[in-house]
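Feature request disguised as a bug: please show the residue count (331) next to Aldo/keto reductase in the output. Example input:
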Amino acid sequence: MKTRKLGTTEVSPLGIGAMSFGPFYGPTTEAASFAVLDAAMELGVTHIDTANVYAGGKSEETIGQFLAERPGAKDHFVIATKGAITKDDDGNRCFRNDAAHLEAELDKSLKRLGVDCVELYYIHRRQAEMPIEEAAEALASLVKKGKCRSIGFSEIAPSSLRRAAAVHPVAAVQSEYSLSVRAPELGLVQATEELGAALVAFGPVGRSFLTDRPIRPEQVEEIGGWVASNPRFEPENLRYNLEISDGFRKLAADMGEPAAAVAIAWLLAQGDHVIPIPGTRSADHFRELVRGAELELGEAELAAIETVLPVGWAHGDRYSAGQWVGPERYC
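Example output, currently without the count:
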């Protein structure tokens, strides 16, 4: 499998988004997560992306247990994790980018993962009242202490990236990017490439809309949580989104490929610095996703995809008002 640059090393062209090692899209088990990780080792996928807040630390614990139990796993996987999302004294969600908080949270993450150092440590959400230069310095201090090899930010604007990179090299910026979320093309794709940073794309299969098993109306309430409060899953928006994305599923079927694989292949074609991190609770579904890293789309196929899913096709904002607290808007 070809590789792409991430931090100080090279990784497979796609990684594992380990938010799915918790109940974000429905219930799961440690055995199911282990099966995904086993499939990753078998298929040559080398990058795992997690965070301290995923399932309250359970995602990191699951990864740590796997690394401890599977021979060679620690050498096989390149791990990234995140910090900065926390709660204030009243229990309200807030963000902290100061060095003391980031180091304390990274120490906890390292313990859960069972490692001394991670390749990449992200600020998960920017603390708006702190200059991003100070946040970059806080992350850089952790590199100097040997607790991470490189630094990154999640959901920041291109302008913020440039300011942070002037303080310390930024290895990666994480952003939602897919055929249903094209905003990164208005500056972030370009800025990351210019600065030599990876654009690590979460949500690469459009929160299920770009797969052969999209979330259906009857599942929204059952899943609850984030999905139930997201505008794209509101009844009318969901009806349109399913109807339009059916054309993409048909196109993928005509190509003889799983829809998820075509979505991943499209994303990989947007730049050699783009690294999708799809999440799944199923090893079989993960194999479909990895197929996308092997699939090269021609100009005719790329044009056909753009025809059935033109820019701006998705109905509803990608976040609710509450979910938009933290990510930086830049267009």
